């Protein structure tokens, strides 16, 4: 499915888009035994069920990027917004203005003093996989998550961590794993570990609207 797909998005744009969206999920290997009441054991299915009941999310984020090409980490900050079932927006405000808006099959990229760019996700399947990982986590769509990633859930409802490993070769050539942490239905941190040692860690202060 993904042979040669990285040629569809090249250079810094691909890396920026991948690190923007950071998350995804899939082999249902669940660890941890936290419980939600007597009838609802805490597992990946329960987490996705709770996320599916959230129709709007607004959050502020701070992201720290480490790269072999940078003498010091790059610190970014801004806001994230999710509107069910398929709209996700990331607005970076510092140290520069940049906005990514995903709605349905479309990704809109807006950068300061540059012409907006629109991409069809179906034309860029690797990028689509990254976006759906994040979006499917927010929407609680386990079936979609399982199309792209192997997953393991650790911990309990009060402090859980999803370890996500790309299923397809083109993606795994760039990203080693993605770690999503949270409490109850809220996501508090997303970490992307790239092949070669670079990484990105995003801390999220999420408010469920």
What are the SSEs and their pairings?
Elements: H1 11-21, E1 28-30, E2 35-36, E3 40-41, H2 44-52, E4 56-66, E5 74-83, E6 87-94, E7 98-103, E8 106-111, E9 117-120, H3 125-139, H4 142-145, E10 149-156, E11 159-166, H5 169-172, E12 175-183, E13 186-194, E14 199-208
Parallel strand pairs: 1-10
Antiparallel strand pairs: 2-3, 4-5, 4-14, 5-6, 6-7, 7-8, 8-9, 10-11, 11-12, 12-13, 13-14
Question: What is the second-level CATH architecture?
Answer: Clam
- The CATH topology comes to outer membrane lipoprotein receptor (LolB), chain A
* CATH classification, class level: Mainly Beta
Tell me, briefly, the overall form.
globular
Task: Determine the strand fraction and express it as a percent band.
Answer: over 45%
Structural class from helices and strands? alpha+beta
Estimated helix fraction = 10-25%
Note the gap between the termini: 37 Å
Query: Can you tell me the residue ranges where pLDDT is under 50 for at least 5 consecutive residues?
Result: 1-38
Instruction: Round the mean pLDDT to the nearest integer and report it.
Output: 80
Q: Report the CATH superfamily.
A: Lipoprotein localisation LolA/LolB/LppX
- Element string (H = helix, E = strand): HEEEHEEEEEEHHEEHEEE
Radius of gyration, in angstroms, nearest whole number: 16 Å
The number of helical elements comes to 5
Number of domains: 1
What's the number of extended β-strand segments? Answer: 14
Largest sheet: 12 strands, mixed
In which order are the strands of the major sheet placed?
1-10-11-12-13-14-4-5-6-7-8-9
